[in-house]
Specification:
heterodimer; A: two-stranded antiparallel sheet; two-stranded antiparallel sheet; 74% helix; 3% strand; B: 12 helices
C-alpha cells in the first residue's frame, strides 16, 4: 500500500506524458509544439536544480552555468564534427567535469551554504563576461567561432545516431525533449527512492547526524552536484539544438534567477513542482510578450520580464514560501481530514 | 620609473574601487548576516541619483556626495521595513527576496527611464606622471574610498551608534534587555549600508555611465570581495580588496580586463579553499 502511494504519482505522470508525447502533435499547431518543446527543455533544467537544491540541500544558484556549458560544448563540437552523437556526450561531460572541480573545492572546503550560492552565481557571471569578450575573429574553436555577445548561430540540430541525413524536425524535437524530461523525472524519482537518495535526504535534514552515522556527506553532496550539472548540461544540449543557437545570456543573472523562480514557485522539495513552475512562469512570460495590451493596462509601454519575475519572487518568498504544489497538497489534505 | 609609478597608481585604484563597491554590501552582511542581492541595483540607483539631479541643474558634487547617499539610504530603510524585517533569521529567504527586489528594480528603471546609457564626463581633468597621464578623477576615487573607510572605522569604534550597533549584532537579546531598540538599529544599519552603496554608485557613475542593468557588472566583484574578506565589515573588505585588487590589476596589465576578472575569481576560490570563513575568519580577529 505504501509502495503504491509513493510511486503512483510517477506512474500517472509517465502514462500521461506518453499520451501527450504521441497525441499532442496530432492536435496542436506546429507553432505551439515548438513552444511546448522549449518548455520541456527548460523543465529538465528546473528538475536538475530541484534535485540539487531541494533534495541534496546544495544551493547551486548558478545552475545556468552548467546549462550554458552544455550548450556551448555541444555547439562547438557539432559544428566541427557534423555528427551529433559525440557532441551530445561532450555537452554532458564538460559541465560535469567543471562541476566536479568547482564542487570539490567548495564542498570539501566546507564552504557554508550561503557562500556556495553566491560563488556558483558569481562563476556563472564570470563565464558571461568571459564569453562576451570573445567576439573577435581570433576566438575560434576548430571551425567554430565563439561569437562573443552575438552567440553561435546555425548550430546543426541533433541527428539520428549514425544517420547524418536524418536530423530531428520540430515534431521529433518536441518528442525527444518530452521523452528526456520524462526519463529524467522518473530517473530522479528512482534515485531518490534508492539508498543513495535516502542518504542524500538524510544529509539535507541533518548533516552532522548523517556524518555521525558514518556517511561521508561531502562525497554524497559532490556526486549529487555533479549529476545535477550533467542533467543541466543535457538540457543545454537540447536547447542549443532546438533553436540552432546558443548565446552568452544563458550565463546571465536574469536567467539564473529564472531557474530559481521556477523551482520556488512550483515548490522546493518536489520534482513535479519544478516542472509545474517552469510551465506556469514560462507561459506567463510568453503571454505577456504576446499581449502588449496587458502591459498598457498596467501603465507601462512594454512589460519588462524582470519586473514580473521580481514581483513573483518577492511575493512567493514572503507569502507562499513553500510553493504551489506543496501548498495545494496541504489544502487538499486539510479538506479531506477536517479534524487534523 | 614612470611606468612603475603609473602601475602602482593603477593597482591602488583597483583596490580602492573594489573596496568602494563592496563596502555597502560588507556593512550589511558583516553586521546583519544579510546578503543583499539587490546590492548592484543600489549602486545603480546611486548612479541615477547623481545623473538625474545633474541633468536637472544641480551641482555635481552636491548630487554625488549628498543627494545620492541620502536618497539610496532612505530607500534602504524602506526596503528593510518591507522585505528584510519579516525574514530575519531566514538567510536563504532573504537572499531570494532581495534577488526579487533586484529584478524588480531593473524592471522598474527599464520601464521608466529606458535602456539607453546615461553618462557624464569625468570631471577634474588629468595629471601628468612622468611620461604618462592619469585622470584626476582616479585620485578622487582613491581619496574618497580612504575617507569613507576612515569615517566608517571611527563611526563604528568611537560613536554611541557604533557601540550600540556592534552590541546588537553580537547579542541582540542582551542588547534589547539593556534597553536598546534593536529594530531601529537594524533599520539604521541597513540604511547605512544602502547609503554607502548609493555613494559608491554615484562616485563611479561619471566613469562607467548608468544603465538599468549596470548592477550586474559590479555584483560579481563585490560578492567575491565580501566573501573572501569574511564576516568583519571593514578589515575584511580592505584585506580582500588589497589581495584581489592587486591580482586583478596585475593580470589585467599582462593580458585583458576580462582575464583579470577571471584571475580575481580563481584567486578568491583558492583563498576560500584555504580559509573557508574568509581572511578575517583566521586573521585580524576582533577588528571591525
Amino acid at each position: 500500500m505504501t509502495i503504491w502511494r509513493e510511486h503512483a504519482p510517477v506512474a500517472v505522470v509517465a502514462v500521461v506524458g506518453i499520451v501527450v508525447l504521441i497525441g499532442l502533435p496530432q492536435v496542436v499547431e506546429l507553432f505551439t509544439l515548438v513552444d511546448v518543446a522549449v518548455y520541456c527543455i527548460l523543465a529538465i533544467l528546473a528538475l536538475s536544480l530541484s534535485f540539487v537544491w531541494g533534495f541534496a540541500g546544495i544551493l547551486s544558484f548558478g545552475q545556468s552555468a552548467f546549462f550554458g556549458l552544455g550548450g556551448y560544448a555541444y555547439a562547438l563540437a557539432v559544428i566541427n564534427l557534423g555528427e551529433s552523437t559525440l557532441p551530445i556526450i561532450a555537452g554532458i561531460l564538460v559541465p560535469m567535469s567543471f562541476a566536479a572541480v568547482l564542487g570539490y573545492v567548495m564542498i570539501y572546503g566546507r564552504v557554508s551554504d550561503v557562500y556556495f550560492a553566491v560563488i556558483t552565481l558569481t562563476v556563472s557571471l564570470i563565464l558571461y563576461h568571459l564569453i562576451n569578450s570573445t567576439s573577435g575573429p581570433d576566438y575560434v574553436f576548430g571551425r567554430a567561432r565563439l561569437g562573443g555577445h552575438n552567440g553561435i548561430p546555425g548550430i546543426p540540430p541533433i541527428n539520428v545516431p549514425g544517420d547524418l541525413q536524418h536530423q530531428l524536425d520540430h515534431v521529433e524535437t518536441f518528442q525527444i525533449s518530452l521523452a528526456v524530461l520524462l526519463l529524467v523525472y522518473v530517473g530522479l524519482h528512482a534515485t531518490l527512492s534508492s539508498r543513495f537518495g535516502r542518504v542524500l535526504i538524510a544529509i539535507r535534514g541533518n548533516e552532522l547526524r548523517a556524518e555521525l552515522l558514518g556517511y561521508d556527506s561531502r562525497r554524497y553532496k559532490l556526486i549529487a552536484f555533479v549529476v545535477g550539472a550533467g542533467i543541466a548540461g543535457l538540457a543545454g544540449v537540447l536547447f542549443a539544438s532546438w533553436g540552432s543557437f546558443i548565446g552568452p545570456s544563458v550565463f546571465g543573472i536574469a536567467f539564473a534567477a529564472q531557474i530559481i523562480i521556477w523551482v520556488l514557485v512550483g515548490g522546493l522539495g518536489t520534482l513535479g513542482g519544478a516542472v509545474l513552475g517552469t510551465m506556469l512562469i514560462q507561459s506567463l512570460v510568453s503571454w505577456l510578450g504576446r499581449n502588449p495590451a496587458a502591459a498598457t493596462a498596467l501603465g507601462f509601454g512594454t512589460i519588462d520580464t524582470n519586473l514580473v519575475l521580481g514581483l513573483v519572487l518577492i511575493l512567493f518568498v514572503l507569502l507562499i514560501p513553500q510553493g504551489l504544489l506543496p501548498t495545494m497538497r496541504r489544502l487538499v489534505l486539510e479538506r479531506r481530514q477536517p479534524s487534523a | 620609473m614612470d611606468y612603475a609609478a603609473y602601475f602602482f597608481i593603477q593597482v591602488v585604484y583597483a583596490i580602492a574601487s573594489l573596496a568602494l563597491i563592496s563596502v555597502g554590501l560588507a556593512v550589511i552582511y558583516g553586521m546583519m548576516r544579510v546578503i543583499n542581492f539587490a546590492h548592484g541595483e543600489f549602486l545603480m540607483l546611486g548612479g541615477y541619483a547623481v545623473i538625474l539631479p545633474v541633468q536637472a541643474g544641480f551641482n555635481l558634487w552636491i548630487s554625488m556626495l549628498i543627494i545620492a547617499p541620502l536618497s539610496v539610504g532612505l530607500f534602504g530603510i524602506v526596503v528593510e521595513r518591507l522585505i528584510i524585517r519579516p525574514l530575519y533569521g531566514r538567510v536563504i529567504d532573504t537572499v531570494l527576496a532581495t534577488w526579487g527586489l533586484s529584478l524588480l528594480l531593473i524592471g522598474l528603471t527599464s520601464a521608466t527611464l529606458g535602456y539607453y546609457q546615461e553618462g557624464s564626463k569625468p570631471p577634474l581633468g588629468s595629471l601628468a606622471i612622468g611620461a604618462y597621464r592619469e585622470s584626476g578623477y582616479t585620485f578622487f576615487v582613491i581619496g574618497i574610498t580612504f575617507a569613507v573607510m576612515t569615517a566608517l572605522y571611527l563611526g563604528l569604534k568611537r560613536t554611541r551608534f557604533g557601540l550600540l550597533a556592534r552590541g546588537t549584532m553580537q547579542n541582540p537579546a542582551m542588547a534589547a534587555g539593556l534597553g536598546v531598540n534593536t529594530g531601529r538599529i537594524y533599520a539604521a544599519t541597513f540604511g547605512l549600508g544602502a547609503a554607502l552603496s548609493g555613494l559608491a554608485g554615484a562616485v563611479l557613475a561619471p566613469i562607467s555611465g548608468v544603465v538599468p542593468v549596470i548592477g550586474a557588472t559590479y555584483i560579481a566583484k563585490a560578492f567575491i570581495t565580501v566573501i573572501s574578506g569574511g564576516a568583519t565589515a571593514l578589515a575584511g573588505t580592505m584585506s580582500a580588496a588589497v589581495v584581489l585588487g592587486t591580482v586583478n590589476q596585475a593580470v589585467t596589465f599582462m593580458t585583458t580586463p576580462v582575464v583579470g576578472e577571471v584571475a580575481l575569481l580563481v584567486a578568491a576560490i583558492i583563498l576560500l579553499r584555504l580559509l573557508p570563513s574568509g581572511i578575517t575568519g583566521r586573521l585580524f580577529r576582533g577588528s571591525v
